[in-house]
Design brief:
single chain, alpha/beta, eight-stranded mixed β-sheet, 8 strands, 25% helix
Length: 182
């Protein structure tokens, strides 16, 4: 596994040992960031089920200011911290070892991009999007990206988030939502 592009492009990152996580493939990761505009000039990124920190670290590499990585798995948290340290981005990251729903109360500033990729059997994506919106953790225009199996289908709107794009990559579906501005 590696960072695909940006400041840390081609730098390797470590995986969590065992099969407790399912990292997003480099192909899907590249496609997601290409859809998001490829590079950022600032902003805050939230990785809700971070695993290795793969997506958040890619976002930092491509120009996001800060990233918050949440995972409840202890081994995942140790791997995330190791990856953050290897890239020297400790000051730009916050790593939280909690279930994402429990972590919401400790998040104070809203985000510009949110990535939701839970273990497929444990998906509560709609409930999480509603909770993020209700807690005012989504900036106007915030993009929420949901990774799921290609068999899943997602509603056109969840809270103030409107679906604007969906793409299948073999067994993986990526669904994009944008927070509507008032």
């Amino acid at each position: 596994m590696r960072i695909v592009a940006g400041e840390f492009g081609s730098r390797p990152i470590k995986s969590v040992k065992g099969d407790s996580t399912r990292p997003t493939s480099d192909k899907v990761k590249g496609a997601v960031f290409s859809s998001l505009g490829n590079t950022f000039h600032s902003g805050r990124f939230l990785d809700c089920y971070s695993g290795t920190g793969n997506m958040a670290l890619e976002a930092l590499s491509r120009g996001m200011d800060t990233a918050v990585m949440v995972d409840k798995n202890r081994q995942a948290i140790l791997t995330i911290k190791e990856n953050v340290h290897s890239l020297g981005v400790e000051k730009r990251c916050k790593v939280i070892q909690k279930d994402i729903f429990s972590a919401l109360s400790s998040l104070k500033e809203p985000f510009d991009v949110v990535y939701i990729d839970p273990p497929y059997k444990l998906q509560k994506n709609e409930a999480l999007m509603e909770a993020l919106d209700y807690a005012n953790l989504l900036n106007p225009g915030c993009i929420v990206v949901v990774e799921s199996t290609s068999q899943e289908s997602w509603p056109d709107q969840v809270a103030s988030l409107k679906k604007y794009k969906e793409k299948d990559y073999r067994n993986t579906k990526i669904t994009y939502y944008r927070k509507e501005t008032e």
